[in-house]
Amino acid sequence: MLVTVEEYWLCWLAYAFAGWFWETMLSVVLRKRFEDRGVLNGPLCPIYGFGGLLVVMLLADVTDPLALFLSSGVLACTLEYLSSWAIERLFHVRLWDYTGKPFNINGRVYLNGFIAFGAGATAIKLVIQPWMIGIMDSWPPTVLHWASGVLLAATVADAAVTCAGLYSFDTRLARVAADIRELKLEQIADIDERIDLANERLALADERLREVLSWQQRRLIRVFPSMVSVRDDRVADRVRSLLEKARSKRSR
To answer: Residue 229: enclosing H or E segment and its boundaries?
Structure first.
């Protein structure tokens, strides 16, 4: 079966979207609320797209389900490990950390990921990929060209905005850390005065966070609960706590 570059690209989008859907639904189940779990602003998790294509292309000759499961798990975990390392080196933040999870390797990958990726990749290779290629082969060439072109332009633009936000992320978190230190509560005996001061400083902190951090950066802090800054491993938790308190106050 001859697969064109455009079809591979659309498959990448499909797997990236499926990964976003999977991660977001897990958040709904575990955290009881909808949260956009994608690194990009659009509904895509790129690592799933690359993982799916790598399995399809590098394991093309592997047909035994058990061998495919094991090799896919190793391949996907290798990709996840390298992605975590590259993000940390390039942007000085660590988006996920599995420290404390069973059979983790430096907190970058762990056993559950191996099992989930292995099972998903096996289904992709044996069932989903042939089915999708069959559908795309039935499309008129013009539809295929336009769909791949428009989606490519949108994804490149999204990736550029995301990379720009990640590039300044650590620097902005450092500014936020300095602001948080200045807004620490003073020791005041009167409880009512302490509550008033706490509310006032919470409002100031929320306003300052919105000035310093972009919408995308605030979203990443909320939806990646184990994210840390290499510069200050506590600042992300502090920001997350302030965002949650401000969000709760606004919803009252």
So the answer is: strand 228-229
pTM of the entire structure? Answer: 0.80
The burial of 251, by beta-carbon neighbours within 10 Å (0-12 exposed, 13-18 middle, 19 or more buried), is given as: exposed
Instruction: Kindly give the confidence (pLDDT) of every residue in the chain, 252 residues in length, as a single tens digit, with 9 standing for 90 and above.
Output: 557 899 999 999 999 999 999 888 888 887 777 777 788 888 999 999 999 999 998 988 888 999 999 999 999 999 999 999 998 888 888 888 888 888 899 999 999 889 999 999 899 999 999 999 999 989 998 999 999 999 999 999 999 988 888 887 777 777 776 766 665 544 434 444 444 444 555 566 666 667 777 778 878 877 787 787 777 667 777 777 776 766 666 555
Q: Are 114 and 73 in contact (CB under 8 A)?
A: yes
What is the three-class DSSP state of 94? strand
CA 243 – CA 35 distance, rounded (Å) = 14
